[in-house]
């Protein structure tokens, strides 16, 4: 039986762990310092509690964490991995830039532990995403992870170096979230000078797919704008200097902060966006 | 018979003039200082040569020019309009920011000439756009322009101040061109680290409409990147300070310049984009 360790039973980690367990893997995670909620989530997913040392006895460690914890968790694990006789394959699955990924890889590889770069693209497996997200693996050890398809995961191998999976995740998120932010900001700008109705009519005529996308994406984005700011800052470090995408994503990060900040104050931006998509809601009231 | 003056018989101006003439308007433009090509285009469109003074005798003047000429042409016309007994309605139809529009309006209104703000959205009338572009009019004199629908133009009136039509045009172009530039830049970034194939597969799965849009938009954009740079700079002045769209569009302008510059050198960016959309073209060769 293959033993797979999950760094933490967050929303994504627990859902992935549940799929692995359902397909016959032994799934472990250290629960002693986790909240009652996380402990319950792990139990429901058939994820078994273990010590931090026992984590190193797994065949594969999947680091699935909030992006800002990816490096510090690797640093915590390093002495345990150093001491372990049997080295697991350590897979960083986090939404971090290739720069940060390189630092994580150095920490892990310096202990003699094999390392792979991964990108998880899509929502956690569950009602909203029955087929589950896709896992992309890069780096010299990626091939060993093909076996995870036997445990219910959707696996794709990239013929590319460590960092390529991180870059994929950054580019994919950068495009999708960037479009939502750029378009939202311009809808707000147009609305503030009385051009909302005309812009909506023009988009209905010639940009139907985009208008439909934005009707859902803009209101979904607003409550997450603060979290997106950190993500835009991380994306700004992707291939810095090649093209001015660093400036571009720093500006998008700033727009996230402005939208988030405005939600705490007069909420004029969210009101303008709501009115753009539902112009008759006010008039009917 | 209504007389309509066109500032210059460029691609858009001549095509609009042709539609107006077909529908029974008398269309005039000064041709003496124009190229043989422009003179021929005017003749084919049934646009009649006139002096700069005679331009002021029109009922309506449509300023349809390259954006950078909008203000200087208004300044040239101002003394003639000042001297004219009968004042035409001067309509600025150019892709300029509300800031620039305000300057044009001040120049024209100081001569006692009524002024309207217009946005032309869409390609010139012709084979590629049989129904023609849409004209949006703003400002206190917009209502007088409703009659242009009798002369074959697609007219929409905005219930908004001067500047709103310019803002509409900026926002519409900013969204459409911004999406093309942002996405192209990230496709290049991902391609440079070996993530092109994976990103294409992910977009085929979850972003089909965007992928289809980009297949046409990215190669169409590259030869125009230099011209787009000036347009992004102009869009950067839209509602400056409200949201960080000034930073955002300055970055997009910089990316335009980098793409245009790269076309003069090793063309690696256009090669990466071509390969992204046609991955098998190289391999088959």
TrEMBL record, chains A, B:
The organism's taxonomic lineage, starting at the top: Bacteria, Pseudomonadati, Pseudomonadota, Gammaproteobacteria, Enterobacterales
6-phosphogluconate dehydrogenase NADP-binding domain boundaries: 6-122
Top-level lineage group: Bacteria
Keywords: Oxidoreductase
Residue intervals of the Phosphogluconate dehydrogenase NAD-binding putative C-terminal domain: 190-258
Source organism (scientific name): Candidatus Pantoea communis
Identification of the protein by name: DUF1932 domain-containing protein
């Amino acid at each position: 039986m293959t033993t797979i360790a999950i760094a933490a039973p967050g929303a994504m980690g627990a859902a992935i762990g549940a799929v692995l367990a359902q397909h016959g893997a032994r799934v472990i995670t250290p629960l002693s310092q986790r909240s009652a909620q996380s402990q319950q989530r792990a139990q429901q997913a058939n994820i078994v509690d273990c010590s931090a040392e026992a984590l190193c006895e797994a065949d594969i460690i999947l680091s699935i964490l909030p992006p800002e914890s990816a490096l510090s968790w690797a640093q915590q694990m390093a002495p345990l991995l150093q001491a372990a006789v049997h080295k697991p394959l350590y897979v960083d699955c986090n939404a971090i830039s290739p720069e940060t990924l390189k630092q994580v890889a150095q920490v892990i590889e310096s202990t003699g532990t094999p390392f792979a770069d991964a990108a998880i693209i899509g929502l956690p497996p569950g009602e909203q995403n029955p087929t589950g997200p896709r896992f992309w693996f890069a780096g010299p050890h990626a091939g060993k992870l093909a076996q995870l398809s036997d445990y219910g995961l959707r696996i794709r191998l990239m013929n590319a170096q460590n960092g390529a999976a991180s870059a994929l995740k950054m580019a994919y998120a950068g495009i999708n979230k960037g479009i939502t932010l750029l378009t939202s900001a311009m809808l707000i700008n147009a609305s503030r000078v009385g051009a909302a109705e005309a812009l909506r009519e023009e988009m209905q005529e010639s940009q139907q797919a985009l208008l439909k996308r934005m009707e859902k994406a803009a209101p979904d984005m607003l409550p997450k704008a603060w979290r997106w700011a950190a993500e835009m800052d991380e994306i700004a470090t992707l291939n810095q200097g090649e093209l001015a995408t660093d400036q571009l994503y720093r500006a998008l990060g700033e727009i996230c902060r402005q939208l988030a900040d405005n939600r705490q104050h007069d909420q004029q931006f969210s009101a303008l966006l709501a009115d753009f998509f539902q112009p008759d809601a006010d008039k009917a009231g």
